[in-house]
Description:
The protein has 18 helices and 2 strands. Among the domains are: 3-87, no CATH class; 105-193, no CATH class; 291-337, no CATH class. The radius of gyration is 22 Å and the shape is globular. By secondary structure, the protein is mainly alpha-helical. Strand 1, helix 7 (122-131) and strand 2 (137-140) form a beta-alpha-beta unit.
Amino acid sequence: MTEYAQYIVNHIKSDLTGEYEKDMQYLYDCSEKYKEDEDAADILREIASLMYEILPDNEKSKVGDKLKELNGSFDTAYQAVLDMVKCGDFEKAKSTMEELLKSADGRFVNDDSNIYLSLNHVMELYEYSYFFKTDKDIKCTDIMYNEYYRTYAQILVHLGEYEAAVKACETAIGWNPVDLESLLEMAEIYIGMGNHFEEYFEATQNAHRYCCTRATMARYYRNMGRYYLEKYKPDVARALYVYSNIYFQSEAADSALQFIESALNRKTPEYQIKELQQILEDNGIELGPCADTIGIIYRVGNLMLESKDLDRARDCFAIVYDITQDEETGTLLAQIMNQ
């Protein structure tokens, strides 16, 4: 969501009164006001969520039941699921999501000549082609199977159904093997299950290849830190949490460092970067992102620029600049954003 769209949504939220009929009319008026806006998709989606949140519980139930009857309106049904999750109604979200998946499944089937993928961005197509060599024709679905199953897995985790969540996440990854969010989610499901630390480690390692921003690299090192903490190697874990904060500081890493300080009864050392990197290298932990992935994203950015697809080019160059701080890429990104 753009800063402008977020500003509009925050303004709308600030004017809600808590009176159901008055607020519902106000939200309807806002939807009419902004339906032609250039950021209409984001603004209207947030307005729909606000409408769902203020519905009485019995009306929410009716919405969910009605959505089960829809076979073609996947976007509408999925948005309702997200609203249910946002409101903490995970049982209803689960049943509605299962109906959606039942209607969506079976529409695309791999065969000897074709493989169907559910991708989130054009750069994932190039990543898949590079890392998963195939002679089959790659075709993209117009149904968001990857995201649907990933969200379904999240719902199942909230309900404590971890085994089912693993299967749902495996299906999400099957639809998009290069989706970083699904790979990291799989790792975090394993840690939630307890006593699945090797599966957690393997899933986290699998995710590293696709970590391509400072935030996702920080998440990778936090996850690795959790593994070494569980394996009773607090010094390695501490180095990983400090390294994570170098990429992107987080409360999660800070809390873990405080826990280690308390457990060991000694302060976190003032590490030099080379010290941290040596600890990581000694334990076979990757230093930084996968160079191949960053190269692919940069190449896709150039291809999008050549085809005048400035939005996708901007996305790619923004990722590369974020992780590398390369001056040439930063200049190129600035030029695109000024067009």
